[in-house]
Design brief:
This protein is mainly alpha-helical and 299 residues long. It contains 14 helices and six strands. Helix 1 packs antiparallel against helix 3 (36-72) and helix 4 (89-98) packs parallel to helix 11 (218-259).
């Protein structure tokens, strides 16, 4: 079609540049002197006809090319690219929820993409709320407090939105853990009660965090939670054991002089008891292995 558009002006230029013979000059002079309007009419009619024919030829050629192109195309198939969820993440999210930990996803992606990934991971549940960063930051504190218990996905967020969420949750008395790997995550990691940085993240994020996940796996976070609960549980058992022994010793040492006038415990037996109590019975509670009951217990 482009070639045809070029050919028509080229033909007109060739006609215009064609040398005129004497007879043509005389004829043109006589016709112009006698009937100039008719000569102009013929010339314009000829030019219009050529343009009309050229346009019709271009239209026909364009239609022919379009039909031929559609007939020559063959649909081989459709290809889609997807970044799959890491293996074990849905199970880890479920374990966190069973342990009383609410998992929220904060991302800069589109809200539809975020909702799809969150549903696949089990983060976005029925009744959960997904918001965008611009709408979240415009909320008042009362509106924010109302939506926070159901907020599970925050899309198109900025680092300031993430910090605002963490800060507000802590003001409401929640214990907050944050994961991050970039420089812009450092304020949120520092603000949270527990900051988890990724092993492949920046040094700034690692310095601002409390724990570094060397394998960048969310499932390792669940193990860290279970180890933390195990240590806390062991400390409680040890304190309970020590208090029981020492309270009994104090009662015996106090009740003897009051009732009999003499203490049944001399300085040596209490020291002997403390020596055995501090060595033999204490290590088992402190070295107890992880068990599934820790994951199912509410914080």
């Amino acid at each position: 079609a482009f070639r045809d558009m070029q050919e028509v002006p080229a033909e007109l230029d060739a006609l215009a540049e064609k040398p005129k013979s004497k007879s043509d000059t005389k004829s043109e002079a006589s016709s112009s002197s006698e009937k100039p309007p008719k000569a102009e009419s013929k010339e314009s009619t000829s030019s219009t006809d050529k343009k009309g024919k050229g346009k019709a030829a271009r239209d026909a050629q364009g239609q022919k090319r379009g039909v031929t192109g559609i007939k020559d195309l063959v649909l081989v198939g459709l290809v889609g690219i997807k970044d799959p969820v890491r293996q074990g993440v849905p199970e880890a999210v479920k374990e966190c929820q069973q342990a009383g930990i609410m998992v929220r996803m904060l991302t800069g992606d589109n809200v539809l993409t975020a909702q799809s990934i969150a549903r696949e991971c089990g983060i976005l549940t029925e009744g959960g709320v997904a918001l965008e960063g611009p709408k979240f930051r415009e909320m008042s504190e009362a509106e924010m407090d109302e939506v926070l218990p159901k907020l599970q996905v925050l899309a198109r967020m900025t680092p300031s939105d993430k910090y605002l969420l963490v800060h507000r949750l802590r003001e409401l008395g929640e214990v907050v853990a944050v994961t991050g790997d970039g420089v812009n995550d450092a304020p949120q990691l520092k603000e949270a009660d527990v900051g988890f940085a990724m092993g492949s993240g920046t040094e700034v994020a690692k310095d601002a965090s409390d724990i570094v996940l060397m394998d960048d796996n969310f499932a390792s976070l669940v193990k860290a939670v279970m180890w933390g609960r195990n240590v806390y549980n062991s400390i409680r058992k040890f304190i309970q054991f020590q208090l029981t022994v020492n309270i009994v010793a104090v009662i015996v040492a106090f009740a003897g002089p009051v009732s009999e006038g003499l203490s049944p415990l001399t300085p040596v037996p209490p020291l002997w008891v403390n020596l055995h109590v501090g060595t033999s019975p204490s290590p088992p509670p402190a070295t107890r292995a992880l068990h599934q009951a820790l994951a199912n217990r509410m914080p």
